[in-house]
Design a protein that fits this description.
single chain; 181 residues; mainly alpha; 2 domains; 84% helix
């Protein structure tokens, strides 16, 4: 959601007749993202456009519009690859994993999470790595693979701790403890 808020803020700053209040209260989020995506495209910012498409994927996941979410993530993934944004690519792949998981396509979700984890590690994005490990732990719980869930959640918690996010690390540990029979 942070990326989404940044987009809204960018939109309000780049259009002199707009302000933050107008952008957030007069338009629905999807409309703002579509307009912002068009604006980024018009100024040639492929990264901005890719981030908007990722936000559309996140927005579409919430009401179970999985096809729309997958399409947005696929489009964003393509743009991220074209511009060489490996971190964005990892985020898109993880988003595709989330969509697969929500559709109970667990093998596909696991594959996407593994791909995302490799990308996060390649670019050294420890926060993304920790979040991906947490997603993998949740998936393992859904698959009743408690050994893998324990391992992934402990790796996620350790990674969060190592980057100074001890509260997040504790949340991972608490969630795993609650998911055990």
């Amino acid at each position: 959601m942070l990326r989404f808020c940044v987009h809204w803020r960018a939109l309000s700053l780049t259009r002199s007749r707009w302000n933050w209040h107008t952008a957030t209260h007069m338009y629905k989020p999807k409309i703002c993202i579509i307009r912002l995506s068009r604006w980024y495209r018009s100024i040639g910012s492929r990264l901005g456009e890719a981030n908007c498409l990722q936000s559309m994927g996140e927005l579409s996941r919430a009401p179970s519009r999985f096809d729309a979410a997958s399409e947005s993530y696929d489009q964003a993934l393509s743009l991220c690859r074209q511009i060489g944004d490996r971190a964005g690519e990892a985020n898109c792949v993880r988003g595709l994993g989330d969509v697969a998981c929500m559709q109970e396509q667990y093998a596909e979700a696991a594959n996407q999470y593994r791909r995302a984890l490799l990308l996060y590690r390649e670019v050294g994005l420890r926060l993304g790595e920790a979040g991906c490990l947490w997603s993998m732990a949740r998936l393992a719980v859904l698959q009743h693979n408690l050994n893998l869930a324990r391992e992934a959640s402990e790796l996620a918690a350790t990674t969060y701790s190592n980057i100074g996010l001890s509260a997040q690390a504790q949340q991972v540990r608490d969630e795993f403890t609650q998911s055990q029979p």
